[in-house]
Amino acid sequence: MNAIEILGMSAGTISSITFLPQVIKTWKSKSAKDISLWMFLLVTLSVIMWLVYGILIKSVPIIYTNSMVLMMSLIMLYFKFRFNK
Prior knowledge:
By secondary structure, the chain is mainly alpha-helical. It has a single domain, classed as Up-down Bundle (Monooxygenase), CATH 1.20.1280. It has helices at about 5-15, 20-30, 35-55, 60-85. The longest helix has 24 residues, at about 60-85. The model has no long low-confidence stretch (mean pLDDT about 90).
């Protein structure tokens, strides 16, 4: 792995972590009433497109980042439907 890929993986890790506090807060509170469904649907669509793009160009940092963000987005969508009050 070269320095550019390390930079991409580091940026991807930080980008992925940005979703974690919301996932944890929603899980602990068991409430998703203040979560925007449309925002997470759009984020999920965007991330899927980025993931496909990363796979097509064989970019490990893009695949890694968007796989992690997709996982967080899907968890939030699950919480939105499960905990919506």
